Amino acid sequence: xxxxxxxxxxxxxxxxxxxxxxxxxxxxxxxxxxxxxxxxxxxxxxxxxxxxxxxxxxxxxxx
Length: 63
Fold this sequence. Notes:
By secondary structure, this protein is mainly α. It has helices spanning 5-19, 33-39, 42-53. It has one domain. The chain contains 3 helices and no strands.
């Protein structure tokens, strides 16, 4: 089964926001979460796990 364009787009957008420090803007504004990755790289793994485990898809693969 191939991943839908909607899911791959959502993961791509999440990744972009994450690495550019704009994830959760404006909720996380002022929180330098990227600095935490230097000390504990599992933070990135946890963030992606939470994101992927909370995506809901319909029968067609739309988010």
